[in-house]
Amino acid sequence: MPCRHAACFDVATPVSRLELHAACGERLWAIQATERTLVTDVDYGVVPPGFRQIFPIHGNPRPLAKGECIILLWRGDDQFAQHHGVAVSPSVVNYGGWQSGPPKGTDDVLFAPGGANEAREQGCPAGPKCGG
User: Fold this and answer.
1) Torsion over CA: 40, 71, 47, 33 (sign)
2) Is residue 28 part of a domain?
């Protein structure tokens, strides 16, 4: 069944930090766990119990643009993952390719907007702030 959220996990997964970025390196939304928390589905802009929003500092994130390339980055107990997808509505992303492995570096390095963990999707339409 397709995911109807900003992030979906097949099983309850420990997540310490989760971010959505536009493919141009723009940080859209970021949440951080305040305690060890298991998550399954995460709705864009809705802070789940056990988390706090760290970006934007105040207010809601901007809506996603249909067709915009989105990169989901998240860190769990012993892994860091990156998923590439396309927004299908202002709050839902359909993901395709992904990769994961042990975290290599601090959160500041792993989640840096435009950093090495945001390899751009080839052939993906530019988002509204990437000149598209």
Assistant:
1) positive
2) yes
Residue 125 forms part of a structural domain: no
Is the overall model pTM greater than 0.70, yes or no? Answer: yes
Would 99 be classed as within a structural domain? Answer: yes
- Model pLDDT, residue 96: 81
Between CA 66 and CA 40, with CA 127 as vertex, the angle to 5 degrees is 60
Positive or negative, the Cα torsion across 114, 67, 47, 16?
Answer: negative
Find all residues with CB under 8 Å of 69, minimum gap 6, and list them: 22, 23, 84, 85, 86, 87, 120, 121, 124, 125, 126, 127
| Residue keyed to tokens 């864009």 | 44
Q: State the residue range of the domain holding 93.
A: 7-110
| Total number of domains in the chain | 1
pLDDT digits (tens, 9 = 90+) for 13-49: 999 999 999 877 789 999 999 998 899 999 999 999 9
Whether residue 32 lies inside any domain: the answer is yes
pLDDT in tens, 53-86: 999 999 999 999 999 989 899 998 888 888 888 9
